[in-house]
Amino acid sequence: MEDRLKEIEGTLARTAERKNTMLYKYEKAKQAEDRLSELGIKKLPTNPNDTNDVNVVKYVLYQMKRDFGDKRSKLLDPKQISIEKDGEEVVRLRNNELNSLLIKIKTWEKRQNELLGRDAVVAPSKKKQYFGCAKYLPEAAAVVKRERESDESDNISDSEISSSSSEGSVKHELNHASDIYARLINEIFSSSTDEKLSQIEGSQTVTEVDSTPRNPHFILSYVKNNALAIPDEETFKSRLMDERRRVLKEKIELAKKAA
C-alpha cells in the first residue's frame, strides 16, 4: 500500500512539474508576443538590415545576449555540460553555437550603431573562441600552444630589433665621432689656430684645448719641445664612447634615485 502511495505521489509530482514547465513556457511566450505587439511587428527579423527601428534592434540584441549568457553559463557549469559527462562532440557543438551567436550579436550591434549615428563597432574577430569546458578540447589546447609560440617568437624578434637598433646607434655614434674628429683636425690646422699656437710656441707647458669633462667632443692639442701632438682617431673615438657611457651611467643613477 505504501509503495502504491509513493508511486502515485511520484506521478503527481511529475505531472505538476510538467504543468509548471508548460505554464512557464506559456508565460514566456505570452510576454514575447506582447513585446512584439508593442513594437508593431509580428515576428523578430533575422536580418538586421530588414528593420529601420532601433527599438526592434535593441530587443533582438537583448534576446541574443540573454541566450548567449544562458548557453555560456552551461559550459561553465560542469554539472550541466562537461567533456567527461557529455563527450567532446557535445561540448564542441555548444561552443560552436556560442561563436555563431557572438558573430550575430556583433552584426546587430553594428546595425544599432548605424541607426543611432554612432561610430561603427570593431569587426568581430574571426579567431574562434572557447568557453568554459570547451577550453579543454584538443583543438583549444593546440590554439593556446600556437599563441604561446607566436608570443615567444615576437619577443625574440623584438630583442633582435632592439639589438639591431643598439648596434645601429653605436655605429652612428662612431660615424659622428669621425665627422667631429675631421672637423676638429681642420680647425687645428686653420690660420686662427696657427696664431694661437704661435703665441705659445717653444713653451714646455701643456695646454689643453676644449678638454672639459662635460664636453665629449673634445680633442687634446699641445706643443711640447716644439712639437705638435694630437690623439689619433681611434683614441678619440674611444674617449668619446667612454664619455657616452659615463653620461648614460649618470642618467641611470639619477633615475634610480628619483624612483
UniProtKB/TrEMBL annotation:
InterPro entries: Isy1, Isy1_sf. Pfam families: Isy1. It comes from the Eukaryota. Residues 147-170 are annotated as: Disordered. GO terms for biological process: generation of catalytic spliceosome for second transesterification step. Residues 158-168 have a biased composition (Low complexity). PANTHER family: PRE-MRNA-SPLICING FACTOR ISY1 (PTHR13021). This is Isy1-like splicing family, putative.
